[in-house]
Design goal:
Blueprint: H1 15-61, H2 65-74, H3 86-113, H4 119-128
């Protein structure tokens, strides 16, 4: 048994189209990773600010009020970019670049290959797997 219909190119679809959509999909995967790193940046920046706050309280308790005041005034709760905390950066990225990228990638798949995903990878799998061998099935349950 071969790949499911969802992972087989529609009749008349040429190699270059499948390759192009594969590259667009690969680019989207990189964007997904970048988005994950952006969320990591968001989480780490928030953690740093709260940990900084704890350190500033400890400075104050240790009698270093002037230095604690300066940290509190200049750094605790400060914007990481002009006018923005990290949640605002994440929202702008998600609502702009990320949403547009996902939308255009889906539009291309819908227009060119009936919405099918990962055709390039599915064809790579077909070419690399050992047909009829355990662990090399085309899909689950085959």
């Amino acid at each position: 048994m071969g790949p499911s219909e969802d992972h087989t190119r529609p009749d008349g679809t040429d190699d270059l189209t499948v390759e192009a959509l594969g590259n667009i999909s690969e680019a989207l995967e990189a964007v997904e990773i970048a988005r994950g790193h952006l969320y990591t940046f968001h989480r780490l920046s928030g953690t740093a600010d709260f940990t900084l706050g704890k350190g500033v309280r400890q400075l104050r308790e240790a009698g270093h009020s002037d230095l604690a005041d300066r940290f509190e005034r200049e750094l605790v709760g400060r914007n990481v970019l002009e006018g923005r905390w990290t949640f605002q950066i994440v929202e702008e990225y998600d609502d702009g670049y990320y949403t547009l990228f996902k939308s255009l990638e889906k539009i291309a798949r819908d227009a060119l290959v009936e919405g099918r995903r990962h055709l390039y990878e599915a064809e790579l799998k077909e070419g690399r797997r050992t047909h009829g061998r355990d662990g090399h099935e085309a899909r689950p349950g085959s």
